[in-house]
Amino acid sequence: RQQADATAEHQRRLEEKWAQKEAARLAGVAERGAKAGKHVEEVKAKVGDVQRQQADATAEHQRRLEETLAQKEAARLAGVAERGAKAGKHFEEVRAKVGDVQRQQADAT
Length: 109
Known about the structure:
The protein has one helix at residues 2-108. The protein is an all-alpha fold.
């Protein structure tokens, strides 16, 4: 009878230890899961920040490209206008000289 009681007590203690260890294991699993979840959220936040920064940098780069292109286009148009004005002035000078030469030839005859 005593041996059966001792065996039963031993069995009960083993089961109690096993239950405690199982509870500790489950608590560890839950803690690691919570840590992993927190880490995942932190990584998602960082990824979002990096993506926003990249989008901002891309938009800024695009804006600078467009600004540079507009400046170059304005400079090109100014050059075209200047060359047009010079050509017009030259044309008028040539026309005046031709008129002078024609008058001189008409007067000479």
